[in-house]
Amino acid sequence: QLHLVESGGGSVQYGGSLRLSCTTSGFTLDYYNIGWFRQAPGKEHEGVSCISSNDGSTYYADSVKGRFTIYRDNAKNTVYLQMNSLEPEDTAVYYCAADSSPLVIVNSICGEDPDEYDSWGQGTQVTVSS
Predict the structure, then answer these.
(1) CA nearest neighbour of 126 among 5, 13, 34
(2) In 86-107, which positions are buried (b, 16+ CB within 10 angstroms) versus exposed (e)?
(3) Rounded to whole angstroms, how far apart are CA atoms 51 and 43?
(4) Which of 2, 11, 15, 115 has the fewest Cβ atoms nearer than 10 Å?
(5) Is residue 81 within 8 Å of residue 36, measured between CB atoms?
(6) From the CB of residue 17, how many other CB atoms can be counted at a distance below 10 Å?
(7) How far is the CA of 3 from the CAs of 29, 34, 70, 118, 124, in angstroms?
(8) Quick check: 8 and 18 in contact, CB under 8 A?
(9) What are the CA-CA distances from residue 67 to residues 1, 25, 63, 77, 97 (Å)?
């Protein structure tokens, strides 16, 4: 399993922006499908976005389409989640996760199911006030 570290969370007002980072050491994140999930109090994990290893394809939940962007910086071994036009409903703990299936499956595509991911970060809090 990877030791993933998230950063970049914080408190912003409605309409603000934050950029979350997910990184690790000793492993190349580009070999893994990377997902961002969030969990608000009393709610289940929600798949927010993911990026596939093999072709860079991305997924976004309907609730964040057009506002969030996921991308890799391989030179920094980091996956980012740029979050714009934040809303109070985006308030949650955000987690990044890694899916190692691309290491054994050639055309593995990232997904929104948390069960597909085998390494998780500790989470970073995002709070959006109205």
Answers:
(1) 13
(2) beeebbbbbbbbbbbbbeeeee
(3) 24
(4) 115
(5) yes
(6) 11
(7) 11, 13, 20, 11, 15
(8) yes
(9) 31, 29, 9, 23, 20
